[in-house]
Amino acid sequence: MQTLQLPTIFQRSWLHNESYPQNLFHKSTLTYPTALQAYKDRLDAAEPDLFVNDESNVELSFRDLHNASGKALEKYNIHTSMKLTEWLGLDTVADPADSTKLVVVARKPDPRCRFIYVYGEHSRAPLKTTRKMLARILTFHQVMPIYLDFISVFGSQSEPRDRRFSGFREQSTLSDPPRGLAIPSLGRSGRQYQLCYNLKSVALASKDTTNSRLNEWSIRPAVIHHQFDVVNGTSLWIVTKGNHDLQERYKELTGKDGRPEDRSFGSVEECLRSSLAAHLMFCHWSTEDWRWYILWLETVIEEQTSMVILGARGPGHAYRLSKPEHVQHLQLWEDKINEVIMILEANVDIMLAMCRFYDGLRKNKDVPQKLKDDCDLDITTFTAQVEDMVSDFKMQIARAKLQVKITSDRKEMVIQHLQSQATERMERLNQNMEREAIVMRIITIVTLVYLPATFVSTFFSTDIVKYQTQNGGPPHDGTFSKAAMYRWLQVTLPLTFATLIAAIVSLKLTERKRRKQQQPAGYKIWKRWTQNRTQDVELSKLSSHTSTDSIV
C-alpha cells in the first residue's frame, strides 16, 4: 500500500495528541503556552461530565464527500479509537533508519468535504466520544483550541449550563506563501480559514393537551466548526449538538435530493458555494419555532394576568385576591422572555459577524482572485439571505421586548393590589379595634365606678370589722380585730407582690422574643462566626505560649 510522507512537526503533534491543545503547531497570539495550558486545564476539569468513559458508548458519524478513491459519498459510524485512526488514514510505524523511533505516515489524502457529527442523547448528556478520540480528530485537523470553550456547554448536568454563552471566532492563514503548515500529501495548502460559532434554536419538548401552560419548551444549542482551504477547496465540518437533528438536515442538503450546487465539490468555487449553503442551513435552523415560543409565552402571561387589568375591584365586586406567589410567577415568565431576547440578539450578532467575514474575503488580497470573482455573486446572495433572517429575528426581539414591558407593568399592578389588600385589612382591623376600644372604655368606667364599693364590701365582709355579735344580738358600733387585719395583710401583700413579679417576668420574656424576631437574616451565622473567631484567637494564643515554652 502506498504511503504518504508527513512533515515532522505534524508527526510530532499526532504522537502527542493526548495533550491537545498543547500539541498544536500553529502559533498565534491566542495559542501561546499559557493560553494553551488554560484550555487544557478547563478540559481536564470538564472531562468527567463532558465525555463518556467507555468506548462501547462511543458513536461518531463521518461523511466523506468526494474522497481520493473517487467515491461521491463514503460514510461510517465509528465506535473505537482503532477504527478512528484507520478512517483518518494514519499509521504509526517504526522509523526504517532508526527502529527506536516512531514515524507517522498517511495512506490517503483528505476528502473534498468531511462532515463529523459529535452528539449526545440531548444537550445535557455526555457527548458520545471519549476525550482521547476527540483529541485525535482535533489534532489531525489542527482545530483551533477555542472550539473547546464552545463545546463546554454540553455534558452531564441537571440544569442547562452556561446557556448564555455565544460567540463567533475565526482564524485565518490566507497569506501566500502560507504562514500555516502546508501538507501536500493530505491536500492541505496551508492557506485556509477556520470558523467556530454557536447558534441556538427552540423546540417544543412536550405538549399538554389539557393545559397549554404546562407545555415544555427546550432551548437547544449547536456548535459549528468549519475549515476551508482556499487553494485546494477541501473543507471540514465538525458539528456538535444534542441529538441527530442537524446531521439529518446535512444529509438532506448534500443527498441525492438536494440542489446540485449545494453538493458539488468539483472545483474550489463549487466547494465554497457548498459551504455557504451549509452555513445558510444552520442559520435557518436557528430561526425556527421562536415565533411560536414567544406566542406561547404571550398566551400564558395573558391568561394569568388578564384579570389584573379587566377585573372590577372595590366594594360590591367579586374579584380574585392577589397573592405573593403571583409576583413570583410573573417574575419567572419575565426572566424567560429576557432570556429569549438575549439568545436572539446573540444569534443576530453571530450571523452579522459571519456576513462581515465573508464580505471581507471579497476584499482580502490574499484570497485567489479567481475565487473572489467567481463567487462574488454567491457571497452577495448569501449575505442577503442571512440579513433576511436577521430582520426576522429583530422583529421577534421587538415583540419580546414589548412583552417584557407588559409583564413588568402587570407585575407592578399585582404588587399594588397586594398593597391595597394589606391596606384594606388594616382598615378593617382598625375599625374592629375602635369598636373594641369603646367597649373596653365602657367596661373600664363601670369597673372604676364599682371598684371602690366592691373593695370596701369585700373588706368589711371579713373578720377585721364586725357589727354583729356572735349570738345574733343587735348591731352595735362594731369591733376591730388586729389579728384578722394582720392575717389579711400576710396573705394579700405576698400575693400582690408575686403577681407583679410574674407580670414583669412575662413582659421581659415577650420583649426578648420580639427582639429575636426582629434580628436581621444571618445574625445567628454572624454571631456563631464571631464566637468561633474568638475561640480560634484564644487557641492560637495558647499554642503560641506552648511553643514559646517548648523553645525555652
How many H/I helical runs? 12
Between the first and last Cα atoms, what is the distance in angstroms? 82 Å
| Quantity of strands, as a count | 11
Give the uncertain stretches in residue-range form. Answer: 543-552
Strand adjacency order, main sheet: 2-1-5-9-8-7-6
Helix content: 40-55%
* Overall SS class: alpha+beta
- Rg over C-alpha atoms, rounded to the nearest angstrom: 41 Å
Largest sheet: 7 strands, mixed
**Global outline:** elongated
Mean pLDDT: 87
Furnish the topology, listing elements before pairings:
Blueprint: H1 8-15, H2 33-50, E1 60-65, E2 73-78, H3 81-88, E3 90-94, E4 102-106, E5 113-119, H4 131-140, H5 146-151, E6 168-173, E7 192-206, E8 216-229, E9 235-241, H6 245-254, H7 268-287, H8 290-310, H9 324-361, H10 369-460, E10 465-466, E11 479-480, H11 482-517, H12 523-551
Parallel strand pairs: 5-9
Antiparallel strand pairs: 1-2, 1-5, 3-4, 6-7, 7-8, 8-9, 10-11
Helix pairs in contact: 3-4, 6-7, 7-10, 8-9, 8-10, 9-10
